[in-house]
Amino acid sequence: MADERALIRFENVGKIYRTGQIVYEALHDVNLEINDGELAVILGPSGAGKSTLLNLLGGLDGATSGRIFFGDDEITAFDDSRLGKFRAVDVGIVFQFYNLVPTLTAIENVDLMQDLGVKIMNPLEALEMVGLADRKDNFPSQLSGGQQQRISIARAIAKMPRLLLCDEPTGALDTNTGRGVLKILQDQSRVYKRTVVMVTHNSMFAEIADKVIMVKNGTVEEVKINESPKDADELQW
Amino acid sequence: MTRNLRRKLLRDLKANFVQFLAIFIMCFLAMFVLEAFDSVVTGSCNSLDRYYIQTDFADLEASSEGFTTEDLLTVRMLPSVKNAELRYTVNGKARLGGAEKKLEFNYIDGNEISKMLLVSGEPYEKEKSGIWIDSDFAVRQGINVGDTLQLTCEGVDFYETVRGTVSNPEHVYFLIDGTYIEPDIGGYGYAFLDAGEYPGESLLFDTMYVDVYGVEHQYYLTDEEKAAIDGCRQDITQAISKTSLAFTAKQKQTGYDSIAVDVGSYKTLRTFFPAIFMMIAVLGIVTTMTRLVTKQRTVIGTLKALGFSNVVVMIHYVSYSVVIALTGAILGAVAGWYTLGASIFDAMKAYYCIPGYSMEVSGTVVITIVLIPVIAGVTNYMACRKLLVQRASEILRPEPPAVMGAGLLEKTPLWSKMNFATRWNLRDVNRNRLRTIAAVLGVLQCAMLLYTAFGVNELNKSVENWEYSELSPANYTVTFSAGTDYGTVYDYARQYSGQMVQSAPADLISGDDSGLYRITVVDEGNLYRFQAENGDYTKLPDHGVAISKRAADRFGIAVGDTMGFRMPPASKVYNVKVELIYKAPNSQGIAMKRSCFEELGADFRPDTLYTDMTVPFTYVNDRTEIASVFSKEQYIRSMKAKGASFDYSVLYIMVIAVAIGIVVMYNLGILSFIEKVREIATLKVLGFPTNKIRWILQQQNIFITGIGTAIGLALGPTVLEFMMAEVDVDADYMYSRMSPMPYVYAFALSFILSIAVNSIISSKVKDIDMVEALKGVE
Predict the structure, then answer these.
(1) Record: contact A99-B11, CB cut-off 8 A
(2) Nearest to B343 by CA among B28, B655, B649
C-alpha cells in the first residue's frame, strides 16, 4: 500500500546497460518511496547503483523495467520532450563535479534557468542563499571547488523545484566546505520544505537524513527512517 | 537563442578564437578568390551580352575588294540570312586644336547590324549628314555634339558637324593600325557617317555585315549557332562570286576573340582555385567543428540535464559555425570584389570599351555564400545530433577512448625496432585519421599550388625567350595589307634580306572532325623556325605537312597519318600526309614549306616578312601596302603588359594558397596539441625534456608534410598543364624544358612553413602546467 505522502515511488524498477556484447545489470527490482519534503540519503558502496537510481529519478536516464512515479505522474511513461520539461520545472540537479557552463559567470549560470522559460527567483537572491553574492561576476575557473558547488546549488534551487537531486555533492570538496554545502541542502528540506535526495558513499551523511536508503548490488537492501536527524553543522568526517 | 546562450556563444567564440579564426579565414579566402574572378567574369559576360544584344552584333563579316548593291540583295535573299548591311572602313585624320588625330571612318548604308549605340546627341538616320564619333575619343579630345570637325579621308579634306557620340560593338578591342600593339582608348577613335557623306568620287563597300538566322546576339555562342554561321558562310560563298571574299565569324572577330580569351583565363582561375580552397575550407570546418562540439560534451549533457530541449541546444551549437562561416564568406566576397576583382577589372577596362561595363555578382557566388554556412551548420548538426540522441546521463559520462586494434604495422617485427617517438606518432596518426587527412590535404594544396604558381611564372618567362629568341628571332616583323601582291612582298624581302611567310586561317579536317586553326607557309630562310616536341630545332619536311602538338592532340593525329585542310572561303580540300609534329607557343595549326604548298597547286601569298634589318616604323603611315611594323622589343613589352594582370592574379593565388596552408597547419596543429596536452604533461612528469618532446611533435609534422608535399608535387605538373591549357586554347608551352626550380621552391616553402608553424605550436610545451593538465576526469 503506497504512502499517501510519497512524492516519489519506484515499483520493481530495473536498469540494464548494454555495450556491444557486454550486458550489465545496474539495478533490479527496486522498490522505494520518498515523501514530500523529506531529505533522503541514498547510501552505498561504489558501483552499487546509486547514481543510476538518481539518474532515473531525475529523468536523465530511462528504466529498462518497472515504473517510477513523481506524485501522480509516471515518469517512465514520459517521452523525451516531457522528460525535458519535467527536469526544467520540477527537478533541480547538483552534480558531483558542478557542471557549470565555463563561459558564463556565476550569476549567469544561475540566470540560465530563466532561459528555459521557467519562473525563477532573483538570481542574486539565490546566490545570497549560498553566500556567494559577492562572487556573482566570477567565471567558474575563478572560483574554488566549494564555491563552484554552491553556485551549482544556487542554480538548482533558483527555480524552486519540488525535488532537489544531489549526486555526491561533497565528493570533490574538503570537510569544512562539504559541511557548508550539506547545511544548505538540509535547509532546503527543513526550511523550504523541498524534497532533497542525496547520493553518497559516505555513511556519515546518513545522520542528517530523514530517510536512509541503503543500496547494494543494484537493489535496495534496507530503508531506515531517522527519527532525529542531526544538523549538518554537527557532522564530523 | 536565449540571452545567456547568446552570451555563451560569444564567449565560446572568444575562448576558441584560434579555431574559429581559422574557419573564418578559410571561408574568407575561398570566397575572396571566387568573388574576385567571378565578379569580373560575370560582369564581362553580362555586359557583353547586353551590349551585343542591344547593338545586334554581326554574326558574320564578309570582306572583299568591293560589294555592290546587287551583292547585298543577293545575300539578303539567302534563306540563312536574316539581314545584311554594307560598310566601307578606311583610316583618316581629324584636325583637333592644331594636332592631327587618327580616326577610322565607317561609311554605312544602314544602322541595323553591329549598330552604333548613341551616347549623346541625335540618332543616325539614313542619308543624314554629319558625323557620329567614338564617345571615348570625344571625351579625351574634348569634342562636343554640335562641333564642326576638320577631317581628312583618302587625301580629301572636308568638314562635318558632330551629330552624336557613340560606341560600337565592333570596337570593343580597337587598334586603329599597325603602329599600335595595344589599345590607347580615346587617343585615336572611330566615326560613323552615312555613305552619302563619302568625300571621294565613288564609294566601294568593302565589308558586309550579316545577321544569320538561328543565331542570337548574346555573348556565348552555342555549337548550333556556330554551325549556322558556318552554313551561312558557305551559302554566301556560293551565292556571290568574289575572288577575294573572306569571312570573319563572330567568334573570330578581333574584339570578341580578344576578350573571350581573357574572360576564359579568369574563368579557369575562378573555377579551379576556389574549388580547391573551398574543399580545404570544408574539410577544415568539419574537422574543427566536430572537435569543438565533442569538447563541449559535458556542457551539452548539462544543458540537456537541466531541461534544455534538443532543439534549443542544437540551434545554439549550429549557430557557432553558421555565424563564423557566413561572416567569413560575406566579408571574403566583399574583399575579393574591392581588391583583386577591382584590380583585374581595371586592367580589363584599359583594354576593352564596353558601355555600362561593370563587375557583377553571380548566382554562383550567392549560392556559395549560402552553401558554406549550410555545410558548416550541417557539420555541427551532425556532431551535436550524435550526442543529443543519447540520454543526458550518457552524455555526461566522459566518452570512452576509442578502442584501436593493433594495426598491420604493429604486427610486423619492424614495430618492435621502432623507437618510442615513432610508435607514439604512428599511433596518434592512426587514432586521428580525419585530422591527419585534413593536415595532409592542407599541405598538399599548398605544395601543389605553389608548384603551379612558380610553374606559371617560369613558363610565361620561357615563352618570351622561346618565341622571340628561338622560333622567331627576327628583330623586325612587317605585315602587309590584305591583297598585297607577291611581287611587292618579294621586293621588300630582297631589300631587307627577310624571310617571307604566309599565315592564314585553315579548317583542319581529320575524318569527320574539323576545326578552325591556322596554316603557316614558310619560304626559305632561318628567321622563322620550328622545334620538335623535345625542343630540338627541326626542319619542315620536304613533302607533306607539319602539325602543332596541340592541334595533333586535338585530332588524335600522329606522324604518318593523312589529314585534310581547307583555306576558307575556298572550298577545295587538300589532303596531306603528316610528317612532323612541332611545338609552338601560339598559333596552333599546320605548317609547310612553300615548295610543298605550291606542289599542292596552291598560290603562295606571303603576308608577313621577318628580318633582322631595321625597318622604319613610318612605313605604316607612308606606305599603303604595309599594315604594321613591329620590333621584337615591342612584342615582348606588349606580351608582358598583357600578361601582367594574369601574373598578378597567379601571385595572389600563390599568397592565398600559402595563407590557407598556414591556417590549416596551425589550426590542426593546435587542435592536435590540445588533445595531447595530458599525454605531453605525462611525458614531462616522466622526465622527458621539453626539446625532446618538441622533436617528437615535429617528427609527426615532418611525416605529414612529407606525404602532403610528395602528393602535391606529383600532382603539380598535371594541374599546371591542365590550367594552362584551359587558360588559352591556342597556347602551348615547353613543359619538358621546365627547370626543377618550381619543385625546389614549392618543396622548400612547404617544409619551411610547416616546420615554422609546428615550432610555434610546440613552443607551448614548456608552458604546460603539469599539475593542471593532469587534473580532471579521465
Answers:
(1) no
(2) B649
